[in-house]
Amino acid sequence: MAVPGKVAAFHLPPLPTVGEIIKLFRLKAQKQLSQNFLLDLRLTDKIVRQAGKLKNAHVCEVGPGPGGITRSILSAGVEQLLLIEKDARFIPGLQMLSEAAPGRVRIVHGDILTYKMDKAFPKHLKKNWEDEPPDIHIIGNLPFSVSTPLIIKWLENVSKKDGPFIYGRTQMTLTFQKEVAERLTANPGGKQRSRLSIMSQHLCNVENCFVIPGQAFVPKPEVDVAVVHFTPLVQPKIQQPFELVEKVVRSVFQFRRKYCFRGVETLFPEGGRLKRTEELMMTADVDPTLRPFQLSMSHFRNLCNTYRKMCDEDPSLFAYNYREELKQKKVVKNLLKSTSQPEQMEEEKQL
């Protein structure tokens, strides 16, 4: 009987090491794809243990590459493993692993950002949102270039209970640059507190599990890597649509080092901006002289709830885009400048 927490439920037959697979298929990490291989199976086992009990579970691994984490997942005794790999060079090595674990592995050559995760697992695994998380896990050593847009996409899926979260509160165990992991888990007042902190923590329980030094990877990245575990919350801390929360949070953090009212101002058109900003801050009971990173989750909840009421009263308000207004101003300014130049030249000629 396996000891709880130990990765020893299933034994793969003798296989070439991950390093030998890399040599065999002449695989090289591509810098433009920010690829870094993790070859130490003790570390890949440790990552997989953070996901929890995987015996007889269904797992999706994102970007398996040469298959280091893949081996650890299979050794945990999973029932089914879905591998989604964008880089075709890794497919032959993954097929070797698939043949070593007959009937357990399905390989998809595709991009995780466009892959339809709502049909990735059997329907019978679905659970109600209020129940315990389903026996489904997402695990991945994410390329740095993909990690932030991907987690934002999945957080939106959590909010809407679609994509991989159509099955319930699917758990995720993912790697990020250490700095990004610190942002995801930062508390109010922390120097890494950011938009990512609010967007992730209002929807999930986020745990920074452990740090892997950069020298453990091939090639060695310039930064260390952290493993982060996400469990979606039964009730989000801010009960408003994802797009609204993201707009408010993004606006507040637009001027990170200034008073928070400076960012809140960008939610409103120029006409009546000051009055509406004061109304929002007052109703939400937020001190306008606090810096964005000092605001608590309840501050953001109040701001979002109040902004929602203001949008309900003025439906055109949510469509307002501060950056677009700046662009339009710039276009008008350039037009005025270009039309005034010929007149100026004509005057100079007459003189």
Record the SSE blueprint.
Blueprint: H1 18-24, E1 37-38, H2 41-50, E2 58-62, H3 68-75, E3 80-85, H4 91-100, E4 105-109, E5 136-140, H5 144-160, E6 171-177, H6 178-185, H7 195-201, E7 204-212, E8 217-218, E9 225-232, H8 242-252, H9 260-264, H10 273-284, H11 297-313, H12 322-350
Parallel strand pairs: 2-3, 2-5, 3-4, 5-6
Antiparallel strand pairs: 1-8, 6-9, 7-9
Helix pairs in contact: 2-3, 6-7, 8-11, 10-11
How would you characterize this protein structure?
- The radius of gyration is 25 Å and the shape is globular.
- It contains twelve helices and nine strands.
- It has 351 residues and is α/β, with parallel strands linked by helices.
- The longest helix has 29 residues, at 322-350.
- Helix 2 crosses helix 3 (68-75) and helix 8 packs across helix 11 (297-313).
- The protein starts with 17 loop residues before the first helix and ends with a helix.
- Helices cover 40% and strands 14% of the residues.
- Strand 3 (80-85), helix 4 (91-100) and strand 4 form a beta-alpha-beta unit.
- It folds into two domains: 25-232, Rossmann fold; 242-336, Helicase, Ruva Protein, domain 3 (Orthogonal Bundle).
- The strands form two sheets. The chain has a seven-stranded mixed β-sheet with strand order 4-3-2-5-6-9-7, sandwiched between helices.
